[in-house]
Amino acid sequence: MSDTLFGRIIRREIPAAIVYEDEDILGFRDIAPQAPVHVLFIPKQRVIPTLDDATAADAELLGRLLLAAAAWARSQGLAQDGYRVVMNCREHAGQTVFHLHLHLLAGAPLGRFGTP
């Protein structure tokens, strides 16, 4: 496991409000939420720095990441009203931790390109 902030969370070296975990994916609340519900979903085993670094071999993992987020949203009753899934790629897009992750935002009507 790479020594990113997220790697340390996976290894439980840093506390996090974990809301979802399976064999491949970890979901936890963002420490600087941009919506009433803001959860990050990350792969646990393979560190891919950015979406741009993903390859065809990562397709199943990327799919599992999306499916985990959707399953969690349904389990929390967020699916009916809706939620947003965002993946930033590199600095200009706002990526600050270079361990591929997606943001699930929900809990209020979201603006067209931003948050509530």
Question: What does it look like?
Answer:
There is one protein chain. It contains two helices and five strands; from the N terminus they run αβββαββ. 22% of the residues are buried. The chain has helices at 5-10, 59-75, and strands spanning 18-21, 25-29, 37-43, 83-86, 102-106. The chain has a five-stranded antiparallel sheet with strand order 1-2-3-5-4, covered by helices on one side. The protein has one domain: HIT-like (HIT family, subunit A, 2-Layer Sandwich), CATH 3.30.428.10. The N and C termini lie far apart (35 Å). By secondary structure, it is an alpha+beta fold.
List the helices and strands and how they pair.
Blueprint: H1 5-10, E1 18-21, E2 25-29, E3 37-43, H2 59-75, E4 83-86, E5 102-106
Antiparallel strand pairs: 1-2, 2-3, 3-5, 4-5
TL;DR of this structure?
The protein is α+β, with helices and mostly antiparallel strands and 116 residues long. It is built from 2 helices and 5 strands; from the N terminus they run H-E-E-E-H-E-E. It has a single domain (5-106), classed as HIT family, subunit A (2-Layer Sandwich).
CATH class: Alpha Beta
Order of helices and strands: HEEEHEE
Strand content: 15-25%
Evaluate the radius of gyration: 14 Å
What's the story with the biggest beta sheet?
Answer: 5 strands, antiparallel
Q: Kindly report the average pLDDT value.
A: 91
Low-confidence stretches: none
Distance between the termini: 35 Å
Query: How does the helix and strand content classify structurally?
Result: alpha+beta
CATH architecture classification: 2-Layer Sandwich
Strand order of the largest sheet: 1-2-3-5-4
For this structure, what is the CATH homologous superfamily?
A: HIT-like
**So what's the overall shape?**
globular
Helix content: 10-25%
Q: How many strands appear in the DSSP assignment?
A: 5
Number of helices: 2
Overall structural domain count: 1
CATH topology: HIT family, subunit A
